[in-house]
């Protein structure tokens, strides 16, 4: 039975503290009851529910943190400060848009495109703070979104001078003070490390304040762990390049996130996997078993503190170094306890297969486990573990023979220094494994694909339609990014409706990942739906940049229609769920699946077939503007969360996920034409592994390629990525679509061109999105010229029709 919207929202709200991370605690919180509270910071009234861009979900009602606290019974004793800050903010915003316009002009860029994803730096001010009661909070907010990366500037990655001054003062003058972070990515907290209570609230959707109130009052206990290392900015690896307009060189290779920090002995402020709780836990490994190459750790967790809570247990593996250099350790499995009352205990069983963590050897073009000693550590963060067992592999094992197919960067990856293995403490169980303990896997490349009989009879024109999104040959304006669907207002796109008379029905696609992105207001005309308000048509940030007049004109030129006089305006909205990073921070796959289930339920209700989420790119740099949509710097976490959400969504009939952006899409600067240069090994061990895990565990219905190039070839035109790796190696059975290619959005100053529809078709991608007449003509021309074979188009169309059939099957 379909749940009520209020039930779905209350499920999100009552579980959201699992997504928050308690970074520091003094014992002064939780509070006994709500009362007077001094609340400061931009986050109070300018709360960020989630970032900007296609990941921004339009919810009917959103509350600020100020409202949330008040609704929970708190009396805000610092209204004067908040009012004064409003004025500072208003002026700063005016200035911000003025500067953006000037910058765009100086760079000869279109101001609206230039502004995409750019967010204002937190302004400095001199509003005075005095002590007005016993308890205070300061909420730091940061926003970002697709189109732009973050900057190492005050008010963005760095705290502003005013923030530092006020936070340190509050920490000094208030008896109880909590620093709260309403952010989607890392902020360098090094100047305020003396603060005794710090909560990473994150961005949780509709009512962040209600969740904060619950946490302040101990009604919910934070139980999230960091999925990305939080450090002083200068500590992050500067080996590779980030933010270059044309080429970004991933020279750091496999040393991403904690793999870099641990191996190169860097210190984090808060390490990967770290998070406190109002209570405390004791963790003891009670047993480790080996069954062939599957190792199972049995762990007892006891709540030793004063209130109920949940703990996350993490298992790390250190791989021996023989021919290949290795990171100090990698996460191989994790589990979360149920809610444990005081003194309660539980037993967790966690398993992993050694072969799933094989290294990629470029020389032999295969995945290998090198001979030597494998060490298993168990703990509750990457820096707080104990050795639980070891396994000796007597000979090097090839777990999968494949072929190099991802191209070559113009450098070689950095290597770590070979380190002597640490001694194994006495009494630790040691297993011995041989090659017989490993399953033999094989890859079958270039499998014959059977062509559907319905496809055989299609004309070249009709076949070309299938390759392009829902392009209407009679349409006047352009389809707009993120809003190219006609059956559901505000949905991102569709497959063709031109062949409905041939029994080929369209698939409707809507964005995520923080819920379903659709227009709030709409009207209907026959089977079609149109947006009836600016909200939902474009990311709010871009509309804000345009101002009301330009926004209105933009709506006309991008194909929006004038709302008919007699139109009946209706409203609908979807439930917001926490941003991707926050969901991952819960380290709770059941919760992730339940959130996917909510999305699936609403997809059924709105008639969405494909959700354009989850997004599981790696947090390679804390500067990526879309990190909030993504899960982690670790591929296991990314893959597990994406798989859990996919299972939740795909429980629902006619609903599928589209995992994105495949692959190495780790920056937003010149995103349409940026070339990620990455080694075959780093691609396979870091950037592709999450996709592999998700596909193996949940078989999502679709994959969206990324805008960027990989080693000089657009990922959407990359046969190695699509056919060899995705289909051949990972066993992906669904359809592959491009990200929303829009020529007008592309900078003319790029070294590389945009992705092209005929090249995408040649590479085995089924859909060029969102689809324009030009893209269609290009495919048709290539077909006529003979540069694109009809056979390839027939294969692409057959795969698409097979997926469409699955959606429409009774
Ligand atoms: C984004 C995708 C999104 C698509 C459709 C693109 O700009 O990169 O993540 O799914 O638009 O809205």
TrEMBL record:
<dbReference type="Pfam" id="PF00933">
    <property type="entry name" value="Glyco_hydro_3"/>
</dbReference>
<dbReference type="InterPro" id="IPR026891">
    <property type="entry name" value="Fn3-like"/>
</dbReference>
<dbReference type="InterPro" id="IPR013783">
    <property type="entry name" value="Ig-like_fold"/>
</dbReference>
<dbReference type="Pfam" id="PF01915">
    <property type="entry name" value="Glyco_hydro_3_C"/>
</dbReference>
<dbReference type="GO" id="GO:0005975">
    <property type="term" value="P:carbohydrate metabolic process"/>
</dbReference>
<keyword id="KW-0378">Hydrolase</keyword>
<dbReference type="InterPro" id="IPR050288">
    <property type="entry name" value="Cellulose_deg_GH3"/>
</dbReference>
<dbReference type="Pfam" id="PF14310">
    <property type="entry name" value="Fn3-like"/>
</dbReference>
<dbReference type="InterPro" id="IPR001764">
    <property type="entry name" value="Glyco_hydro_3_N"/>
</dbReference>
<dbReference type="InterPro" id="IPR002772">
    <property type="entry name" value="Glyco_hydro_3_C"/>
</dbReference>
<protein>
    <submittedName>
        <fullName>Beta-glucosidase-related glycosidase</fullName>
    </submittedName>
</protein>
<keyword id="KW-0326">Glycosidase</keyword>
<dbReference type="InterPro" id="IPR036881">
    <property type="entry name" value="Glyco_hydro_3_C_sf"/>
</dbReference>
<dbReference type="InterPro" id="IPR036962">
    <property type="entry name" value="Glyco_hydro_3_N_sf"/>
</dbReference>
<keyword id="KW-0614">Plasmid</keyword>
<dbReference type="GO" id="GO:0004553">
    <property type="term" value="F:hydrolase activity, hydrolyzing O-glycosyl compounds"/>
</dbReference>
<comment type="similarity">
    <text>Belongs to the glycosyl hydrolase 3 family.</text>
</comment>
<dbReference type="InterPro" id="IPR017853">
    <property type="entry name" value="GH"/>
</dbReference>
<feature type="domain" description="Fibronectin type III-like">
    <location>
        <begin position="311"/>
        <end position="382"/>
    </location>
</feature>
């Amino acid at each position: 039975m379909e749940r009520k919207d209020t039930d779905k929202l209350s499920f999100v709200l009552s579980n959201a503290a699992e997504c928050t991370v308690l970074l520091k605690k003094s014992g002064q919180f939780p509070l006994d009851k709500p009362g007077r509270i001094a609340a400061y910071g931009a986050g109070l009234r300018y709360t960020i529910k989630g970032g900007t861009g296609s990941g921004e979900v339009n919810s009917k009602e959103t509350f600020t943190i100020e409202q949330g606290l008040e609704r929970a019974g708190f009396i805000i004793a610092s209204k004067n400060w908040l009012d004064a800050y409003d004025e500072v903010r208003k002026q700063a915003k005016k200035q911000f848009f003025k500067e953006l316009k000037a910058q765009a002009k100086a760079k000869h860029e279109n101001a609206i495109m230039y502004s995409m994803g750019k967010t204002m730096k937190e302004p400095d001010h001199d509003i005075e703070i005095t002590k007005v009661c016993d308890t205070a909070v300061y909420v730091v907010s940061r926003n970002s979104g697709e189109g732009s990366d973050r900057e190492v500037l005050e008010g963005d990655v760095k705290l502003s001078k005013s923030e530092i001054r006020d936070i340190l003062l509050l920490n000094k003058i208030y008896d109880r003070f909590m620093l709260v972070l309403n952010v989607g990515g890392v902020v360098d907290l090094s100047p305020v490390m003396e603060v005794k209570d710090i909560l990473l609230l994150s961005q949780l959707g509709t009512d962040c304040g209600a969740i904060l109130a619950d946490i302040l009052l101990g009604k919910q206990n934070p139980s999230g762990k960091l999925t990305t290392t939080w450090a002083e900015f200068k500590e992050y690896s500067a080996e590779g390049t980030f933010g270059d307009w044309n080429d970004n060189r991933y020279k750091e290779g496999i040393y991403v996130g904690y793999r870099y920090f641990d191996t190169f002995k860097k210190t984090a402020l808060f390490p990967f996997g770290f998070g406190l709780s109002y209570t405390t836990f004791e963790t003891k490994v009670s047993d480790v078993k080996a069954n062939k190459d599957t190792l199972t750790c049995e762990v007892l967790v006891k709540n030793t503190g004063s209130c109920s809570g949940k703990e996350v247990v993490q298992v790390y593996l250190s791989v021996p170094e023989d021919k290949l250099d290795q990171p100090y350790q990698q996460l191989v499995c994790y589990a979360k306890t149920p809610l444990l009352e005081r003194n309660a205990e539980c037993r967790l069983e966690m398993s992993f297969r050694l072969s799933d963590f094989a290294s990629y050897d470029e020389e032999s073009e295969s995945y290998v486990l090198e001979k030597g000693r494998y060490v298993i550590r168990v703990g509750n963060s990457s820096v707080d573990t104990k050795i639980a067992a070891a396994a000796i592999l007597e000979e090097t094992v090839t777990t999968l023979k494949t072929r190099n197919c991802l191209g070559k960067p113009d450098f070689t990856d950095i290597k770590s220094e070979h380190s002597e293995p640490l001694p194994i403490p006495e009494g630790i169980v040691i297993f011995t494994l041989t090659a017989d303990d490993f399953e033999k896997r094989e890859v079958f490349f270039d499998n014959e694909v059977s062509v559907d009989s319905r496809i055989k009879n299609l004309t070249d024109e009709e076949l070309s339609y299938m390759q392009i999104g829902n392009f209407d040959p009679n349409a006047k304006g352009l389809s707009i990014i993120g809003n190219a669907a006609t059956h559901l207002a505000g949905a991102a796109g569709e497959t063709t409706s031109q062949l409905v008379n041939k029994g080929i029905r369209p698939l409707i696609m809507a964005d995520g990942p923080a819920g379903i992105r659709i227009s709030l207001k709409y009207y209907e005309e026959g089977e079609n739906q149109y947006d009836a308000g600016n909200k939902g048509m474009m990311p709010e940030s871009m509309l804000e940049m345009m101002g009301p007049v330009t926004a209105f004109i933009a709506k006309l030129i991008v194909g929006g229609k004038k709302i008919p006089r007699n139109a009946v305006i209706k409203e609908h909205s979807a439930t917001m769920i926490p941003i991707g990073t926050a969901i991952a921070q819960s380290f709770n796959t059941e919760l992730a699946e339940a959130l996917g289930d909510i999305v699936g339920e609403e997809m059924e209700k709105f008639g969405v077939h494909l959700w354009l989420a989850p997004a599981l790119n790696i947090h390679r740099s804390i500067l990526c503007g879309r990190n909030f949509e993504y899960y982690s710097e670790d591929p296991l976490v990314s893959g597990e969360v994406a798989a859990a959400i996919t299972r939740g969504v795909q429980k629902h009939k006619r609903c599928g996920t589209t995992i994105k952006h495949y692959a190495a899409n780790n920056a937003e600067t010149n995103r349409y034409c940026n070339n990620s240069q990455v080694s075959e090994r780093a691609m396979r061990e870091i950037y592709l592994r999450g996709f592999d895990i998700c596909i193996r565990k949940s078989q999502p219905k679709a994959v969206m390629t990324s805008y960027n190039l990989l080693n000089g070839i657009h990922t959407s035109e990359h046969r190695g990525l699509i056919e060899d790796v995705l289909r051949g190696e990972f066993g992906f059975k669904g359809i592959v679509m491009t990200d929303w290619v829009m020529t007008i959005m592309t900078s003319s100053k790029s070294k590389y061109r945009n992705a092209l529809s005929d090249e995408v078709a040649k590479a085995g991608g089924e859909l060029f999105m969102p689809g324009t007449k030009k893209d269609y003509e290009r495919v048709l021309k290539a077909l006529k010229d003979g540069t694109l074979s009809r056979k390839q188009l027939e294969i692409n169309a057959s795969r698409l029709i097979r997926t469409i059939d699955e959606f429409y099957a009774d």
